[in-house]
Amino acid sequence: MDAQEKQVEEAGRGVSRRSFLRAASAGAGMMVLAACGGAAPAAPTAAPEAPAATPTTAPTLAPIVDQPTATPAPVAEEPTAAPEPAPDAETLNGVTLPDDAGPVDQQVYVRYFDNTATFTSIDFMVTVYEGGGNALRDLLSDALIRLDRNFVPQPGAALKWTSNEDATVWTFELDPNLMWNDGTPVTADDYVATFQYSGSQEAAWDFAWYYSAPGALKNWDKAVAGEVPATDIGVRAEGPHTLVFETETPAPFLPAKLMYSDALQKKALEANGPRYNNDVATSVSAGPYVLTEWSIGERLVYEANPDYKGTNRPYWQRLINIGAKTDTFFAGYQAGEVDHVTGEYLTTADNEIIANDADLSAQVRLTAQDFRTDYLFFDCQNPPFNDVRVRQAFGHIVDRDSLIKNIITPTQGIPAYSFLMPGFPGSNSQALSSIQSYDPEKARALLAEAGFEGGAGFPKLELWLRNEAPVRQAVAQAIAATIKQELGIEVEVSNKEFKTFMEALNAKPTQLQFGMVSYGIDYLDPSNMLGVWLATGRHNWQNATFDDMVNGASAMADPVERIKIFQDAEKLMVEEAPAVWIYHRTVADVLKPYVKGEALEPNVGGFSGIQWPGISAFSNNLSTLYMDSTVSELRPTPPTA
Asked: Which 3 state secondary structure label does DSSP give 224?
């Protein structure tokens, strides 16, 4: 489900948060889900070296083959033990700083959060949409799995996992070394208590839909609805370090979905309620960091947990979040107050400044974020778009390269010829690129075949947008002009209020004939993205063959075969053109040049920023990022808490 849609649906329960991935990522800006200063002395202007990406160069896209899938091998190997440090190496909290690292007092990461955003918890399993704008969260325990920079599940709190033959029962073996910093061992009971809390009707968790279909946890929906007690949910402990999940239907993607599984402590949950981490006095951590300060709307500070026993040990010794208004973020970055601003908070004016400054341009890092794709869509059940030739004609009228060059810019998007973005599991974009290529002559021929030669007899269209920003309004206007010029069809662009747009889209039958919208992932598997186009999805295109392929692959355990079927299904969809893909959104962050680490090496999609899910327990970014020795020159005064 689209995060913004979810926010509207949850509004009645007080949900008022940015999009899911931005909230969920708690780092690079999300979700899965989503998802967010004052003046200071001028920052240094010279950067010793440039990151991999620049604001004028699109990433080199990965080949179609050999991309990772969201389903790991049935058993994940235990992480190998870290090598013993050299006798003269600087070791702190169980990690040895890289040879080129800056001093310990400079291993501090600073960023802003939106001080106007609703912020009621730093724990994902308590709330997602009230988790603050761009605030660092989910650092006080390990998720069962976490993602590497290629979005492949890796061991987290669980060192290995297995499933039964039909992938409806999953067993996770927890790391027996994990310990809460109050001396209590981390056990499977903590995870059971967490899921039973989040799935209870009393919790009214604003992300409860996530563990629903497909592959819903057994009795999850009934527990959320209050029809059965939360103790009936399909999660149980079989001993202190064995955690078992049961699903209603086969769920080969469950390990990837369980990225969102950082545990609450059962003892603290029972003693102090779900928001025990809101207070430093009652906060308890089994994660890489401990909470040391939280003044809502002002500051949020963590320090490396000296008692952490897990495998996501950080180099950064302190994380400082500073509350500020989003329109001041970039000025503060320029002034040297923070180390990182995600592109979601950069305005057009900010990006113009960056583009005209060689040093700032060298600090741009591209990310795929939530793999969001913008596309045109149609009412496929009624004339004129019930004719596949008409839809295919529109598929050949979008000049993606021109749109990106002149409106979107290469740092904000790459051409889309299908739904799944390069780097996403199962992506086949390059192989499908000829199906909806820009070819006005072919578009005119198809329209003539459908009986509308030169646009004669074709009704005037109204292209609806969903409360879009100026850049996407400009994209829509450009497409409308091309449709008029090349096909002779009148198109009026109308930017509607969010609620008006969604009500028309979701009406049965739909009341939206022609629209432009975007969609980003909820979880990292093709079953999520392609599920949007099922007969039960958000649009009214219906194709039984596509449905059978997607549903069959979703329940299939063989990772190679299921990806092949997903790719075949996407090819069928692109050919049938219920949508015309425009571009995949990228986000151009700015990141100080002294921030280094493996997480910033180009990934399978060609992106070299801090990729989703950012700085959190959901990613292994934490265990690779550090400040190099140039930090002392470029940030002379270490940040203080």
From this structure: helix
